[in-house]
Amino acid sequence: AADDSRQSIRVFQPDMNQVVQERLRLENDLRDALRTNKLHMHYQPQVGSDPDTGLLGLEALTRWQHPELGNIPPAKFIPLAEESDLIDDIAFWTMDHACRQLAQWRSRGLPIPRVAVNLSAVNLQNPGLPGKVAAILSACKLQPCDLTLEITESAVLHPDQTIGINVSALHDLGILLSLDDFGTGYSSLGHLHHLPIQELKLDSSFISDLEHSTTAQILTRSILQLAENLGLHVVAEGVETEKQREFLQRQHCNALQGYLISRPLPPAELERWLARQD
Ligand code: C2E
Ligand code: CA
Ligand code: CA
Ligand code: CA
């Protein structure tokens, strides 16, 4: 038995080293990319479900084009950043970038109502967050109502003291707070009424099931109804088909985001998309 375990360790070790080394390499490369401004942003439009409403805002999504490994999706580098000390740098880099882009677009007369930036739960634990957000806004000469911060359920469901203070401070600044991936976690709308949240992003898993599952239809309908009664704005995520759009419009979902409207786009392509509207 002793021999067996030694052997299994010998067999296992090189792989583990590889995993750890790969991770360390990516972490260092990400640190480098941040320092040398090698990340970039894509922007995905959010439009009113009522076709007359038009563009309501853009979600800023961070992109990392690795010099050797190519595009690394956020689903890979965001968790890596969360587990190292890089996630705050990413949040501030992203916010700074998105706000400057919005200010630049506005100065050129492009009618973009607001921009939304994603925050990790870890970002909400930083006591410096509200001050930094206010500084970025004022450096770009933007108003708090120009910015939405998307936060996840897990962050606000079991808030520690700092998170509670930060969420209140951001709300008091006048920033719109949006609950991302709503419906995938454990929060019910009942949990949310005491939180200063003005918007829900209905997770794409509901939307993709709409055409085939009456349960998804019933759930979506009742979430939309409750949200409306509570005065919450709802953005449906991952809208890909005309049928989904029709259903959501009929049920008074406020806003739509997804490939049906547009994929997330680099700034120049977003400008071309905007020019094609109305
Ligand atoms: P998310 O916030 O839920 O963002 C929506 C994701 O769905 C994006 O993936 C977007 O490209 C994708 N998507 C949009 N419309 C459709 C559609 O119609 N169909 C399908 N199948 N997908 C659609 P992306 O850009 O890969 O981002 C993945 C996640 O990474 C985001 O999920 C967000 O949680 C996180 N993320 C991205 N950028 C940042 C960032 O700067 N900071 C933090 N903390 N997280 C970020
Ligand atoms: Ca989001
Ligand atoms: Ca989401
Ligand atoms: Ca998601």
UniProtKB/TrEMBL annotation:
Transmembrane parts of this sequence: none
Any one Gene Ontology molecular-function term assigned to this protein's record: cyclic-guanylate-specific phosphodiesterase activity
Top-level lineage group: Bacteria
Segments forming domain EAL: 23-278
Protein name: Diguanylate cyclase (GGDEF)-like protein
Source organism of the structure: Paracandidimonas soli
Full-sequence range covered: 428 to 705 of 705
